Amino acid sequence: MATHAPAAMWNRLAPAWRLPLLRLAAAWAMLFVLFFADWAAMARQWWDISTYNHILLVPPIIAWMVWQRWPELQRLAPRGWWPGLILFAGAAFLWVLGAISGLDLARQAGAVAMLGASVPLLLGARVGAGLLFPLCYLVFLVPVGEELVKPLQMITAEITIALTHLSGIPARIDGVFIDTPAGLFEVAEACSGVKFLIAMVAFGVLAANTCFLDPRRRVAMLAACVIVPILANGVRAWGTIYAAQIFGIEAAAGFDHIVYGWFFFAAVLALVILGAWRFFDRPIDSPMIDAETIGRSAVLGRLDAMGLSGVAGLCGLVVIVAAGWSWAAIADRLEAPMPAHIDLPAVAGWSRVDYMPSIWWEPRAQGADHRLLGRYRDGSGHEVDVFIALYASQGEEREAGGFGQGALMPDSAWAWQSGGPAVDSGLSERLLGNGRVERLAVTWFRSGDLFSGSNARLKLAVMLDHLLLRTRPTAMIVLSSEDAPKGQAERSILAFQASTGPLQSWVDRITQVR
């Protein structure tokens, strides 16, 4: 009986839907195969990184949303739609930008967007309108949110210290570190609350569409799903500190891990649902879309008139994918000429000294063709550590501004403490080693005319170079100093910059790119 179920479903399917769905299935199968590396990378993040575990539920949620709309969708006539080629080309271009710059987020977003864009291309504007929300919900397949970790660490730390003071516990805050009578606490990346915030936003968007009709109530639901988990995470962190004052830091930390991992998200989710329940205004038997309204829409009628044969749409999709692959492959092979070796030069008023940090510190520069690390000291006792990495190109596993690259060494004694004082256009960060040694590190990137601490600006510069098939090297420069006494590191770095002259010119002479 079960073996006949697919055939029965196929026979119940309206004839007008059969070939368009076959073409869509073929297109999706091709896209999954060709971009399997991106989908596999996303799947590993969904499975291995707790921040993204909730994404494992997104595919069945999308399938459920399509199933909800299916009875109404069957009343629409699918057809090819040539403006869908523009949408699909835009999605493919996003993937190309990621592929030529090493920006995994853009690659993965492009792979997901191509799936979504193929639906209106092969099924038409009216069907695309009926599936608009599930197609937009595909965005939650992309593992995004790491950029929020540091701001959320700071917000959580501020909420925590405020509640700690209100509860009568003497405490001192320094960045994301809070010193109390029971010990020193760090609002670490895992305690930033980013995993629950991302999951709550995904839930909030789903609930706003499924449970509400009033736009104001939808906005309120989304706002609650952002504000409540942030505040709740601050309360959780405070609770850990408060418990530590009574039961000891080890007992409080163990309890926090259990609560944080098993009960925290469930409690926050239940709180939001209970608060919103009485305001749900979508009737239970209300269809998610109205095929009759979609069919009568004059705007959708004009759009749907821009027809295209299904075969032509499928062929256009293949041509766009082939062009994107070729462009990315050519750009990926581009490499700028590299000097045989580079050296740290003499600086007027400064001497090279042995590099002997209190706690070993060496920025990470995976895939760099040249690396330099040394220490300078002047007659006033200022000491500055200089790190330079030079890359022939930027791409997969050779990204100057990639995750885990730069001044903060992953899996080391060093932890991010807070943003540092402004130093020109550099990325200034305060680091703490083993809870006792403070260090200020300022990072810049040099590529073509760019000299900035902005990783986003570096990515844009690299994208432009690769789009134009232009080869230019990239350099990462980190000036750092141990901050003892407080404020000494900033004074040392500024004094060093004054001695080198314009830092970008000094770096260019070292890397021999000018």
UniProtKB/TrEMBL annotation:
Q: Which GO terms describe its biological process?
A: proteolysis
InterPro entries attached to this UniProt entry: EpsH-like, Exo/Archaeosortase_dom, Exosortase, Exosortase-1, Methanolan_biosynth_EpsI
Query: Any keyword Transmembrane?
Result: yes
- Enzyme Commission number(s): 3.4.22.-
GO terms under cellular component = plasma membrane
GO MF term set: peptidase activity
Q: Which residues cross the membrane?
A: 20-40, 52-70, 82-100, 112-140, 194-212, 219-239, 259-280, 305-328
Give the organism the record lists: Novosphingobium silvae
Could you tell me the keywords of this UniProt record? Answer: Cell membrane, Hydrolase, Membrane, Protease, Transmembrane, Transmembrane helix
Q: What is its main location?
A: membrane
Question: What name is this protein filed under?
Answer: Exosortase A
Specify the protein's topology with respect to the membrane: Multi-pass membrane protein
Name the domain of life.
Bacteria
Q: Name one Pfam family in it.
A: DUF3485
* Protein location: Cell membrane
**Domain named Methanolan biosynthesis EpsI: residues:** 317-502
